[in-house]
Description:
Strand order of the largest sheet: 1-2
CATH class: Alpha Beta
CATH topology: GMP Synthetase, Chain A, domain 3
Radius of gyration: 13 Å
Strand content: 15-25%
Helix content: 25-40%
Number of domains: 1
Largest sheet: 2 strands, parallel
Order of helices and strands: EHEHH
Distance between the termini: 9 Å
Number of helices: 3
CATH architecture: 2-Layer Sandwich
CATH superfamily: ANL, C-terminal domain
Structural class: alpha+beta
Number of strands: 2
Amino acid sequence: xxxVVKARRDNHVEEKALLAxxxxxxxxFKQPRRxxxxxxxxxxxxxxxxxxxxxxxxKDLFA
Length: 63
C-alpha cells in the first residue's frame, strides 16, 4: 500500500516522520509501505481527488 499526501506550503514533511506518526494509530496491515509527498493532488472540476490518476501514477508500487 502506498500513501500520497499534500504538504502545506509552509511545512516540510518527511516520509519517515509520517510513518512513525501513524505507527501507533493504525493497524500494521493498514499502514502504507511508502508515503509520497506531492505539491498538488489531481482534482476534477467538482474538486474531488482523482484517485484513479494517483493509482495509475503509482501503479508499479502497488504490486
